[in-house]
Design brief:
With about 450 residues, this protein is α+β, with helices and mostly antiparallel strands. About 35% of the residues lie in helices and about 15% in strands. Strand 1 (about 5) and strand 2 (about 10-20) form a beta hairpin. It is flat.
């Protein structure tokens, strides 16, 4: 029983709050300062992993230096009787994981508000050299005022490097939100956090993550190879410009993703302001108004998002009304003349050539040209995954505005079924794997 146990002669454990993959969380009272705090107690198996403890200490210290309204503050850390613990800010409220269980999908605007605040927290952390590596709904908390708080900064780094990660089942809780590079065992950087936040935003918008499977390996494989359907295909309330933002964050190639959490956040804030649109220089956004700084408090952020009302002189309205009357008279005159020339020719628009473009960019260009656009997964031995092969109808064909255009998106070569290996010896399993054209490897 942990209740009423005193840690470091200071922290009185009051109640158990939650249990996670690497720690238990308790409500406690700081007897020195007279305030309630949260204490995260690491599971006992980590006490014997000296390398893990060294990384944990270093990363916890780095995370403790992060100060931001959207980051759960770390107050203290220590050990007692072989148990390692962290003392943190106690957040009254619910985790995003619990909210999604009962309220998903969220309204697009609210989902973007939550994602923008998480991106603000990530931006501050990344500038300090801290990559979270485990962004998921369980690590995103909302207090009773609706303010977002991100937790477990730095702790995931120690966990990610620990030998515990290689044990069977260690990735069950996080594979859903893995970036493709994490799923392949490659180093994670700030773009990996962008991808994971993109998965969370996708789940908020549609009520489910983009990929699911019977095992962590199956989910990890999809992150690497399967194409993400547009959120609007599952929730028609998601507008095209938000589709493009989400799909860019979820690009499997880190070079095509948002290159920073701040860049991702910029488009999210512009969406909230109604300023998101395409341009010749960038297929998803305009830079007319810079986003509020990531160090702004949440209240400051949404104050800057609201439109500014200004008092105006009445003279421009009088001039405008007069001009409209003149224009109306001219329009009636021209309309009467056109009645004698027969019906106008039907309007047609040429379909733009989007072959070779990433899916998100191609869909946005088609939508901006006035068409309805949807992705269609198509196998290809020559076109890279996530890149448009062609369109149906084809490029340059002239059709009516609003026509449905299918973008055929490469999902790579035709997939072959994985042979059943359960119950086979290692030698026989290797033989079956290689005999079906696969390579033998390991998943970490």
């Amino acid at each position: 029983m942990m209740e009423h146990r005193i840690l470091a002669d200071r922290y009185e454990i009051l109640a158990h709050i939650a249990r996670g993959g690497m720690a238990d969380v308790f409500e406690a009272r700081d007897t020195l300062l007279g305030r309630r705090v949260a204490v995260k107690m690491l599971h006992s198996q980590y006490a014997s992993d000296e390398a893990f403890i060294r990384r944990f200490r270093r990363e916890a210290q780095a995370a403790a230096n992060l100060g931001h309204p959207n980051i759960v503050s770390i107050y203290d850390w220590g050990q007692q009787d072989g148990s390692y613990f962290i003392v943190m800010e106690l957040i009254e409220g619910r985790s995003l994981r619990d909210i999604l269980k009962t309220e998903a999908p969220l309204l697009p605007r609210r989902a973007v508000e939550v994602a923008a605040e998480v991106a603000a927290a990530l931006s501050v952390a990344h500038r300090s050299g801290v990559v979270h590596r485990d962004i998921k709904p369980g690590n995103i908390l909302l207090n009773p005022d609706g303010i977002v708080k991100v937790t477990d900064f730095g702790i995931a780094r120690a966990w990610d490097d620990s030998s515990e990660l290689t044990k069977t089942g260690a990735v069950i809780g996080t594979a859903t939100y893995f970036s493709p590079e994490q799923a392949q065992g490659l180093p994670a950087d700030e773009r990996s956090d962008v991808y994971s936040l993109g998965v969370v935003l996708y789940e908020m918008l549609t009520g489910r993550p983009p990929f699911s499977g019977e095992s962590p390996v199956a989910v990890a494989y999809q992150h690497v190879s399967a194409q993400v359907p547009a959120p609007s295909s599952l929730n028609p309330d998601v507008p095209p410009e938000l589709d493009a933002v989400v799909l860019r964050a979820l690009d499997k190639n880190p070079e095509y993703r948002y290159q920073s959490a701040e860049e991702f956040r910029g488009d999210l804030v512009r969406f909230l302001k109604g300023e998101l649109a395409g341009s010749a220089d960038d297929s998803t956004r305009i830079m007319a108004t810079p986003p509020p700084p990531a160090t702004a408090s949440p209240d400051d952020l949404y104050r800057q998002v609201q439109p500014v009302e200004t008092r105006q002189n009445q003279l421009p309205f009088v001039i405008t009304a007069f001009a409209l009357l003149v224009a109306l008279g001219a329009g009636i005159f021209l309309l009467l003349r056109q009645l004698d020339t027969g019906p106008p020719a039907p309007q047609v628009v040429a379909i733009p050539d989007v072959a070779g473009m990433p899916q998100a960019d191609a869909l946005l260009e088609l939508q901006q040209a006035g068409f309805q656009a949807i992705p269609v997964n198509t196998e290809s031995d020559t076109v890279p995954t996530g890149v448009v092969i062609t369109t149906d109808p084809p490029a340059f064909e002239e059709v009516a505005p609003g026509t449905l255009v299918r973008a055929l998106v490469s999902i790579g070569p035709k997939a072959a079924p994985v042979p059943p290996l359960v119950g086979e010896t290692e030698e026989r399993a290797i033989e079956l794997i290689q005999g079906n054209g696969f390579q033998v490897g390991t998943v970490t």
